[in-house]
Amino acid sequence: MATTQWIVDPTHSEVQFKVKHLMITTVTGYFQTFHVTAETEDETFTSARKVTFTADVDSINTNNEQRDTHLKSGDFFDASAHSQLTFEGTNYEQKSGSDYLLHGNLTIKGVTKPVTVNVEFGGIVVDPYGQTKAGFTVTGKISRKEFGLTWNAVTEAGSVVVSDEIKLQAEIQLVKQA
Fold first, then answer.
1. Which of 125, 147, 144 minimizes the C-alpha distance to 136?
2. Which residues 6+ apart lie within 8 Å of 10 measured at CB?
3. Element (H, E) at 69
4. CA 140 to CA 68: how far, in whole Å?
5. What gap in Å lies between CA 63 and CA 76, rounded to an integer?
6. 71 by DSSP, 3-state: which?
7. How do beta strands 99-108 and 111-126 pair?
8. Domain definitions of the chain by residue range
9. Residue 102: is it exposed, middle or buried by C-beta count within 10 angstroms (0-12/13-18/19+)?
10. What pairs with residue 100 in β-bridges?
C-alpha cells in the first residue's frame, strides 16, 4: 500500500509550553522553529505510521530575553550541547471519534522518556490553493525534572520558583506532499 507523506505548515501551526512561576501564575513560552512530519497509509490519519517532531532550542521565546537566555543555558535546556528536542511517535491510537492518543519517545537534553499526548483530529480540507491539509490540537504534560531540567530556587516563604509540571499545547496543520 502506498504511503502518504505530510509536513508541517509553519505559518498555521504553533508549539507552546506553560509552567507555573512562584506557583501563583503561569508563564507561556513558544518554540518558533520546529518541524513535524507524518507518514500515513491513507489520508485519514487512523493509519498514522510515523510521526516526528523537532524543535530548535535556540528558538525558545517567552517574551523575556533574560529568561530565554537562562532557559537556553546549562541550568535548563543547555542549547549549546543539545540544540534540539525531539519526539518520535511510536503508536497513534484512536480513543473515540476525533480523539486520539499519540505515544512516543521524547528527548530533551539528551534524556529520552516515553510520553503520551492527547490529539484532537480537526479534519482534512483542501485549501483555496489546492493543498490538502490536516489539523490537530495536541495537549499533554511532562515532568521537566525527568529530562534533566532541574534548576530551581526557593522563595523566603518556601515556595519553588518554577514548577516541575510542564503543560504542552500545539496547534498543528500538516500539508499532504505530492
1. 125
2. 34
3. helix 65-72
4. 22
5. 17
6. helix
7. antiparallel
8. 4-176
9. buried
10. 94, 119
* Closest by Cα among 79, 106, 78, 75 to 90: 106
Would the pTM count as exceeding 0.90?
yes
Condensed to tens digits (0 to 9), the pLDDT of residues 110-160 reads 999 999 999 999 999 999 999 999 999 999 999 999 999 888 877 666 667
Place of cell 534533566: 148
Q: Which helix (H) or strand (E) holds 72?
A: helix 65-72
Superfamily of domain 4-176: Lipid/polyisoprenoid-binding, YceI-like (2.40.128.110)
Quote the CA–CA distance of 2 and 23 in Å, as a whole number.
Answer: 50
Could you list the beta-strand ranges (E) of the chain. Answer: 4-8, 14-21, 25-31, 34-40, 48-56, 60-61, 84-96, 99-108, 111-126, 132-143, 162-176
